[in-house]
Amino acid sequence: MKKIAIIEDDPGLNAGIVLALKSQQFQFSQYYSLEEAKEVLKPPFPDLILLDINLPDGNGLDFLQKIRSRACVPVIIITANDQEMSQVTGLELGADDYIVKPFSLMVLRARISNALRKSGSALTFSSGDFLFDFENMQFYRKGQRLELSKTEQRLLRLLVEHRGMVVSREFLTDRIWTDGAEYVDENALSVTIKRLRDKLEEQPSAPRYIHTVYRQGYIWKEEET
């Protein structure tokens, strides 16, 4: 089930979007101001955000920049402002699409499906010191290229996709080693975790990103310096 966050101050439109898209496919979080919407800046992030530009307590474009500094979740801007410059600005700041009010809810549904399909086929993650382009297999830390093995890439992608959530060792092992091998050494995951930490962390002994959760698994969680 895909989680969609709606940030729209018009109660009628906010409710109308939920009604039009309501199905077993989507789960909704509704916000009517930027203050309320701060929840979407915390993991686990929604799968898609519908963001109005003109909100009672601020500009949605400023909020878009905050979203982009934390997550690569698809964002569709919804607004009454049909000026071309506003559309260009929104797209340059990282919006995935732009739809002008009044709009057809059928068209909105199609735009959402398209954005979710694109996000599922390719993943780029940018946060803090990191830029990970999984589609092109390019990984950077503080602008410096990182060389990751295919196994390390699979592990990193799983952790980033589930950031803020504890991912079990069993799940990671099953998803990383998919070559049909009947037996995978129980230390293989621990070794891969250590190698990845060594490449990502300045001080692997005090991890800031990949954390071990005792008897459960691992979690990608960025710690403040």
Automatic annotation (TrEMBL):
Molecular function in Gene Ontology: phosphorelay response regulator activity; transcription cis-regulatory region binding
Keyword line: DNA-binding, Phosphoprotein, Transcription, Transcription regulation, Two-component regulatory system
Sequence intervals crossing the membrane: none
GO cellular-component term (any): cytosol
Entry-linked Gene3D superfamilies: 3.40.50.2300, 6.10.250.690, Winged helix-like DNA-binding domain superfamily/Winged helix DNA-binding domain
Modified residues (4-aspartylphosphate): D52
Function, in words: May play the central regulatory role in sporulation. It may be an element of the effector pathway responsible for the activation of sporulation genes in response to nutritional stress. Spo0A may act in concert with spo0H (a sigma factor) to control the expression of some genes that are critical to the sporulation process.
Name of the protein: Stage 0 sporulation protein A homolog
Organism per entry: Candidatus Choladousia intestinavium
Organismal lineage: Bacteria, Bacillati, Bacillota, Clostridia, Lachnospirales
